[in-house]
Amino acid sequence: MGERTRIGVIMGSVREGRLCDRVTAWVVRSLQGMEQLSVQVIDPVQFGIGGGRPKGVFAKDLSKQLAGMDGFIVITPEYNHSFPAALKELIDSAYDEWQTKPVGFVSYGGISGGIRAVEQLRQVFAELHTVTLRDSVALPDIWSRFDDSGELIDAGRTDSSLRKMVQRLRWWAAATRSARSVAPYDEAV
Ligand SMILES: Cc1cc2nc3c(=O)[nH]c(=O)nc-3n(C[C@H](O)[C@H](O)[C@H](O)COP(=O)(O)O)c2cc1C
Questions:
Q1: Which ligand 1 atom lies nearest to the CA of residue 18?
Q2: Could you tell me the distance, in angstroms and rounded to a whole number, from the CA of residue 182 to the centre of ligand 1?
């Protein structure tokens, strides 16, 4: 058996009444059914992001959580053809902690399913020396995707897209963890 892959699931919205809660709960439930994964939800609200609270005290905790992960799934809505400011603030709060790690995306929104937000995030994560996955999961018309109990409606294809993305995330997480243990990335200059 290989090592467990530690995945940080990053919530992209801090909006009151956010649908991000439902999307995140579905992702976490799906990941819990997969072997050899440990999952940590990283919620910007917990770190004082987006709420106008002093966040200095939280910065160390955020850095520690990000540093402890092998890879990330970023859950993002689309706001005005981009991603939320709170998500940018969380991303910008760290640097080394992202480097060389894989990042997958679950997006949601109106007709586009958030893909424009994801394309912009790819540019941001390139600057942070991450590996963004080609595979992603998009949930268009997010308002009608969950039933009253929070279950994804007609989940079949979406579940299998998520599974495929997570398997590839694990591949990259194992590959990059192994590469870091052989040679520090900082020395590749
Ligand atoms: C400020 C704002 C801008 C939005 N812009 C878009 C958009 O450009 N494209 C889109 O598909 N949906 C857009 N939406 C719809 C959101 O994707 C949808 O409301 C989603 O539920 C927001 O995520 P949240 O509930 O987790 O905050 C926008 C929503 C908000 C609040």
A1: 25
A2: 43
